[in-house]
Design brief:
It is a single chain. Helix 2 (62-75) packs across helix 3. By secondary structure, the protein is α+β, with helices and mostly antiparallel strands. The longest helix is centred in the first third of the chain and has 15 residues, at 83-97. The chain is globular and about 55 Å long. Helix content is 27%, strand content 28%. Bound molecules: pyridoxal-5'-phosphate. Pyridoxal-5'-phosphate binds at residues 51, 196, 198-201, 220, 222-225, 258-260.
Length: 294
């Protein structure tokens, strides 16, 4: 894929059932002006989004992404997206992506200040080349997120379980990781538990058991982690969710950061301490994640 483009979407109520929503999308070149200067997505980061991996024109895990978009919208008091309308828009975008890896983003913003409706659009662009992270792995540092594990329940207005457009903190964490000589970061709760990476979920292996931090509202429930768990369970491994103390990171037999576009990146070191890499399982997971999945 070489072309970047966007589909502007006229949001249709979640319960409006039609067979064809084609007349609610407008294709625009990604370089063309499309948003108003009064957009609250750009002024306040007030909106929600999803990034979907596309392989050879097939958008991966569309239903889990749409479910998480709806969950994020509910947490932000935004109108819940119509899943049939959005999946048709994703289908149109994916069909234009052609061979290779691409990324489709879904964006639902609160719209123009004082305006009547949210603004919604889908973008498509070529994916970066993540071969080095998938094969050679990533060195991570742990960073304090500043909240304890109970904060999501106590302070839901922090929107910690929503994938909001406000990713400036996540990007700052990645820059801090690079300043410390690492490739990526793992957020810790202030009471010492493992959370997630700024743009990925974490999976640890202990023998034949795989564990990931429980998505209890303080972190996103990763669609890639769910897919990896399906695959591991079908291979007879035990998979589960837990509260994971930070000290478990360097005890793991292997660990990965997993996300929709970079896919499975094995962790090679945590805060400078090397951890074992399972190259064979990593290659198997990435082959699985690159195969067409719904
Ligand atoms: N956690 C955070 C904070 C993320 O931003 C992401 C993806 O961008 C993930 C986890 C992984 O989610 P997914 O596997 O659905 O891409």
């Amino acid at each position: 894929m070489t072309r970047r483009f966007a589909l502007m979407i006229d949001p249709v109520a979640a319960d409006e059932a039609r067979s064809d929503y084609g007349d609610t999308f407008t294709m625009v070149d990604a370089a063309a002006p499309a948003l108003s200067v009064g957009e609250l997505s750009t002024q306040r980061g007030d909106g929600v989004f999803e990034s979907i991996g596309v392989v050879d024109g097939h958008a991966q895990e569309v239903v889990p992404h749409l479910e998480r978009l709806a969950h994020s919208a509910r947490l932000c008091d935004l109108p819940v997206p119509n899943p049939a309308q959005w999946s048709q828009a994703i289908g149109v975008a994916a069909a234009e992506c052609g061979e290779g890896e691409a990324v489709i983003k879904l964006i639902l913003s609160r719209g123009v200040e004082h305006g009547p409706t949210p603004t919604a659009w889908v973008t498509a662009a070529p994916a970066g080349d993540f071969t080095a992270a998938r094969v050679n792995g990533v060195r991570v540092v742990t960073l304090d997120r500043g909240y304890d594990l109970g904060v999501a329940e106590r302070a839901p207005w922090l929107l910690l379980g929503a994938k909001t457009l406000s990713y400036a903190v996540n990007m700052a964490a990645l820059r801090e990781a690079r300043r410390r000589g690492a490739d990526d970061a793992i957020f810790l709760s202030s009471d010492g538990f493992v959370l997630e990476a700024p743009t990925a979920s974490l999976i640890l292996r202990f023998g034949d058991r795989f564990v990931t931090p429980a998505p209890n509202g303080g972190i996103l429930h990763g669609t890639t982690q769910l897919s990896v768990y399906d695959h591991l369970a079908s291979r007879g491994f035990e998979v589960g969710y837990a509260q994971i103390p930070a000290s478990d990171l360097t005890r793991a037999d292997a660990a990965w950061l997993v996300s929709s576009v970079r896919l499975a990146a094995p962790i090679t070191a945590v805060d400078g301490t090397e951890i074992p890499v399972d190259a064979a399982l990593t290659a198997e997971l990435n082959a699985y994640l690159l195969s067409p999945r719904d």
